[in-house]
Amino acid sequence: MTVETPGTDQPPLVSFKGSWTEFLGIAIVNLVLTILTLGIYRCWAKAKERRYLWSRTTVMGDPLEYTGTGGELFLGMVIVLFGVLMPIFLAFGFADSLRMAGHALEADALSILLWGLLLYLAGVGTYRAQRYLLSRTTWRGIRGGMVARGWGYGLRFLGCSVAGLLTLFLAMPWANTRLWNERWNEARFGSLEFRAEAPVRPLLRQFLPVWAGVVGLGLALFALSPGLRAFLDAMWSGEMVLPVDGEAVRNGARLVVFWYAAVAAGAFVYNVLCWRHIVSHTRLDRVPLRLNATLKDWLLFVLGNAALLVFTLGLGFIMLRYRVYAFALRHLEAEGALDPDAIAQSQLAVPMQGEGLADAFDFSPV
Amino acid sequence: MPSTSAPSELEAIVHDGETAAAHPARARLTAEGLTLLREGAEPEPLIFSDLWLGDRAPGRHVLRHAARPDWRLVLLGDVPPGWRKQLRRSPRPSPRRVALWGGAAAVAAGLAAALVLNGGAILAALAPLLPYSWTEPFGRQMVRAVGGGNECSGQAGLAALRHLADRLRPAGGLAEPVTLHVIESPVDNAFALPGGHVVLFSGLIGKAKSPEEVAGVLAHELGHVHHRHPNQRIIRQFSAGVVLRTLGGDVGVLADTTLSLGHSRDAEREADTFAIARLREARISPQALADYFARHEPAAAQTPDGSGRLLRETLRKIGDYASTHPAMASRAARFRVAAGDMPAPRPALDADEWQAVRAVCARPGRTHS
Q1: What whole-number distance in Å separates Cα of residue A335 and Cα of residue B244?
Q2: Which residue of B lies nearest to A341 if distances are taken between CA atoms?
């Protein structure tokens, strides 16, 4: 059954054989329990759904096993809520009272500091979520892990995010590849090492025309449409009353919406390019990974999600976790073979609680 | 029953947790658990109380061991259900863990029950803990945010309103000192903010049919101040609100909204009760406020048409449940009843005062029509 027969048609190294009907059964029960518990059950729901998805994923014919529990996730969330989010909320409140007392400069400084802290924590959360998931993923009794704890990664994440903002997102290829490489070069599965060596230049070359197109379009519209300039003037000055020439301004507003759509399309194309690029420059030991999803696959996926939500009046959201996982796994190619006898157990420390931080920032996709 | 004749020996694979290698083995099922048979090794008896059942799929059961977290025993083929039933589905939790989680769950359930059943009383007890020196600037900031530069400053009108508020004040005084504001806006509304700030929009004064209507609204807002409802709201949002919204995700947001609407309706009833008592004490007829509420009832509900009444009533009740305020009709009825046996009401404001209140937003140099 699970004995590998070398020579003949090699089965795919990784495959996913889940069925959406089985998952739907789990998801409906989870939804009911989550509602009955005012939302608290969602930690246990998440663990159950992951356990199903992992168990239907096979590597060399043997299924993965998810060993995380709802209790761990819940504990992680409680710690983040009381240890991180509440103090930050209070500090924001303190900044507000500083402003009321007339210390505007100090209030602004404190606010900027707090936003920076939030961004830093978002980075730490991403890293720790990956660490938690790897440590709870087991295959043939071997588990994964991450070398570090994410405190340093948070700083790099903060730096990359600020650089992205300051360059009007032109630096995104650099930021995304750098962060991905760091995160996956520190990932392990048992004694095997992941290697991520995504270069910046090819992605930047692909991104540059997209970026230039979107930015150029914005500049051209601004230069050529007086209505758009009038609309922006009205927005910036905070005047709710539009100037006399209403029709031109309305056209300007339409152009702004049109430009936003162009930004969204550009971001979508970039995301597709970026995911393909970074995954396809990653390997586990000597097994190269590849994401073969095309722009069309992505479009169908996103439109399918939208249709699912629209036609179920939103209730279809309970299937999104399945769809994301299935999409990723069905488009993930891994060629080659692992030598099980050579994979030893991981010696990395195992975290005690779930991905509270990432969850708080709505980061964990599965 | 096939239980006695079921296969008692199964093909198996052992993952020892040290490498990913698969070690072929056989498992002989016994009444106490199983005996693991591996080539070149002594038969190893394993008892039910040490084992638990991990993931399973048709023809594949993963057994796990309480003392060896990385060890896996994969049973291949059909496992007799009678034997399988004796396996635990999760690891036996340590007594310390049971005590910890049990205690936490009990405390959480107790807190939740207390909040759901008696949240109003808890908030009412906590509300005085927020000091006036802290809530007053907070409320002032909110007035500024709402009013911008549109705060009205007609001195005579404001004085008349302050005088009216004094008449409505209970003998022992209000819980917090009151600061009255009138903001120029067509909105027909009024509200109470933290720190005793009460805001009336000029639209409400303009549309009022009599000074008694303004007095009724003012008495209601003073009720909010007296019961410290704005403070309760702050505490609610920063405690249960934040916890539910963070721990409960999207469903938590929904739950929080539902609970806060319920609390808000209770607060409105409390403020109405206060208003009725204060208006009677001041000999101002509550009838005007009943008229005000009746005027604000949606038109459809006013037509006394027998057909489809049950449906309309049901819809109204659902509407009541999903709204911040109780249904206008039921509030109007309360004030009408209170007005019924009122002896010799006195006007809320004299003609000059009423004139001044109506002109409170008029700017000097410009006459208010």
Answers
A1: 46
A2: B21
